[in-house]
UniProtKB/TrEMBL annotation, chain A:
This is Acyl carrier protein. It comes from the Bacteria. Residues 9-92 form the Carrier domain. It comes from Solimonas aquatica. Signal peptide: none annotated. PROSITE patterns: CARRIER, PHOSPHOPANTETHEINE. Coiled coil: none annotated. Keywords: Phosphopantetheine, Phosphoprotein. InterPro entries: ACP-like_sf, PP-bd_ACP, Ppantetheine_attach_site.
TrEMBL record, chain B:
Keywords: Hydrolase. It holds the Pfam family Phosphodiest. This is Predicted phosphohydrolase or phosphomutase, AlkP superfamily. PANTHER family: BIS(5'-ADENOSYL)-TRIPHOSPHATASE, ECTONUCLEOTIDE PYROPHOSPHATASE/PHOSPHODIESTERASE. The keyword Membrane does not apply. The lineage of its organism: Bacteria, Pseudomonadati, Pseudomonadota, Gammaproteobacteria, Nevskiales.
């Protein structure tokens, strides 16, 4: 199992806690392909809060998230749980 | 047992409070309980931080230090990177000083801090309850300390609704979309259940946890005064208000009548042995004109506006009303409207935009001269009455984060940074703005019925609360326990103890750039609060 695959369930459990009071349309279980904006109803301000939560609960250190959020000089449109896991596996090893 | 009850009233000012505790014809006494407390206690005007604004001022109340030391100057922090300026949101991790919540916790006291800004995420050492203010409902659970407290509140407080309690951006935005007569009344009415929610949470925590230092902040006072100032300032109110004026006056009074009830309940629950304190982060007054400061700086040759190239980014920026400047040709500018600050751009290395470091003093002198020369086109009076140099007003480890100059306007208003002409316009009707003098009131055992005493400093609140809670005052606090707030007998029996310096662990910093959308959201919030044109 890759480091990224090990991180996915941790992120899912964090996100389940994170979104438990939200009015989510879909109750489908979260997977590697679940997208923050499209599937979980995130807004941009929520992403910032999530990154803080990841640093607090999972990495316990500062992560260069700007590299995840910026691609070719602009902000990415959406992020999947898998993309975050891949990024964390790469940058926190 | 709760020895100390602290009730924060955001933006509360004696000019309004004094009317609300007076017997006014046709209205009676709106806040009878507050009146009885004030008559039994001591009160002082409380001089706010140099720029009287919620984040730096509440942080000074919580840390006993000035912004130059605690490092919080604004809602948003602007970071100059030469050819671009980045904005980040301040949170509790940017507070670079130990708070009274943490000092008291280390001294084995339990605390509760409800609805204070910049208290999330809470440091782990806090013994007690933190429910942060200025956090959207979606994130309240994770930012409540300890984490399980949120569930407890949800289960045990009847009618608890985080959406009603927390900052609801969309709802606030609706109120801003059209500030018709009806909408303004709705705006005030929207704060009635919000405040009730905070009261219920405070009542629950005080009743079940009985923290030694119990603190809750009500912030509807600030918001209502921003939007409804003409109906709160008696000099602006028609003699016999009718129609919309009457409706607005009534809904404002309803808010304060409710607030008086919440205060009564909390004070009575705490009991006669509890010392009770009230403070506000700043006062309020009327603003009559708008100063478009960057327009004036452009006229004087200090800045150049950014070109709107029609790109999506540029359009969003223009629409977001954010300073869109040509950073390569700007030597002095105002970055955020609520800072009332002017930043001078000094070259960090050869080739950078800005002035040479050796030119700084002369440049600043000329800039000050130009700013003082600005006159009101109607009255001929000066527009800027004071310019605060950062080394004089923001001493400390973070002095360099402060604007080089902080402007004090004749009407105490906040500047606008929009690209509009002319540089000064009079408002069609006055709006509420922050005044440097807030309130500080104390009542309870050992506190004399001394009435109004000398003006105190905002950094005096922290040592006073710790002293009341039986905690030694850290030696690096900048303020003092006001001797006029306690009787001689009480002070003799309970001498003020000086303690060791505060302890502060640097917390992980999060320097996440905000994207244009977030900037827009935040600016809309500031606009809604009246900080922007």
């Amino acid at each position: 199992m890759s480091e990224s695959d090990r991180l996915v369930p941790k992120l899912v459990s964090l996100l389940e806690d994170f979104t438990q009071d939200w009015d989510r349309d879909s109750e489908a279980p979260m997977t590697r392909d679940t997208k923050l904006l499209a599937d979980l109803g995130f807004e941009s301000i929520d992403i910032i809060q999530l990154l803080v939560a990841i640093e607090q609960d999972i990495t316990h250190k500062k992560v260069p998230f700007d590299q995840l959020l910026m691609s070719k000089g602009r902000y990415v449109d959406d992020l999947s749980i898998g993309q975050i896991a891949d990024f964390l596996a790469q940058h926190t090893a | 047992m709760t020895t100390t009850l602290f009730i924060g009233l955001d933006g509360c000012t004696f000019t309004v409070l004094d009317q609300l505790i007076s017997d006014l014809p046709g209205e009676g006494i709106t806040m009878p309980f507050m009146k009885s407390l004030i008559e039994r206690g001591v009160r002082a005007r409380l001089r706010s931080t140099p720029n009287p604004l919620t984040p730096p001022a509440w942080t000074s109340i919580m840390t006993g230090k000035n912004p130059g030391e605690h490092g919080v100057f604004e809602f948003i922090r602007a970071e100059d990177k030469g050819n671009e300026v980045f904005w980040t949101l301040y949170d509790a991790r940017n507070v670079d000083a130990e708070t009274i919540w943490s000092v008291a916790s280390r001294k084995k006291k339990t605390i509760a801090a409800l609805n204070f800004p910049l208290t999330a995420p809470a440091p782990e050492n806090i013994k007690g309850a933190v429910v942060p203010g200025f956090i959207p409902a979606k994130h309240l659970r994770r930012n409540t300390h300890p984490r399980e407290l949120f569930e407890r509140i949800k289960q045990d407080v009847p009618g608890f609704d985080p959406k009603e309690l927390a900052w609801d951006f969309d709802k606030e935005k609706q109120a801003m979309e059209s500030l018709s007569a009806d909408e303004t009344a709705k705006w005030v009415r929207y704060h009635l259940p919000r405040e009730e929610q905070w009261f219920r949470v405070a009542e629950y925590i005080l009743g079940t946890d009985k923290p030694d230092l119990m603190a809750v902040m009500f912030d509807g006072t600030d918001k209502i005064q921003h939007q409804a100032w003409p109906w709160l300032d008696q000099s602006l109110l028609p003699k016999n208000p009718q129609g919309h004026d009457k409706e607005m006056r009534e809904v404002c009074l309803e808010y304060f009548r409710n607030l008086d009830g919440y205060i009564k309940r909390l004070v009575e629950m705490a009991g006669p042995d509890t010392q009770v304190f009230f403070a506000s982060d700043h006062g309020f007054t009327a603003s009559n004109f708008v100063l478009r400061i960057n327009t004036y700086l452009e006229e004087k040759g200090y800045l150049k506006w950014g070109v709107n190239d029609g790109s999506e980014m540029a359009l969003r920026r223009e629409a977001s009303d954010f300073a869109n400047l040509d950073w390569s040709q700007t030597t002095a500018c105002c970055l955020t409207p609520s800072s009332n600050g002017i930043s001078i751009r000094v070259k960090q290395k050869p080739g950078d935009p800005g002035i040479e470091p050796s030119e700084y003093e002369a440049f600043r002198e000329k800039l000050m001269k130009d700013l003082y020369e600005l006159k009101d086109p109607v009255s001929g009076e000066p527009v800027i009455v004071d310019l605060l140099k950062r080394e004089e007003w923001f001493p400390g480890q973070h002095m360099k984060l402060a604007p080089d100059l902080t402007m004090v306007l004749r009407d105490h208003g906040f500047v606008s940074i929009r690209n509009l002409k002319p540089s000064i316009v009079h408002r069609p009707s006055p709006i509420g703005t922050h005044h440097p003098d807030g309130i500080f009131i104390a009542v309870g055992p050992g506190i004399p019925a001394a009435g109004l005493v000398e003006t105190r400093k905002i950094v005096d609140v922290a040592p006073t609360l710790l002293y009341s809670a039986g905690v030694a005052v850290p030696s690096d606090f900048e303020g003092e326990v006001p001797p006029s707030f306690f009787s001689e007998a009480w002070l003799a029996e309970h001498p003020v103890k000086k303690g060791a310096r505060t302890q502060h662990a640097k917390r992980m910093e999060m320097e996440q750039e905000m994207d244009a959308n977030e900037q827009k959201q935040l600016l809309e919030q500031l606009q809604m609060l009246g900080y922007m044109e």
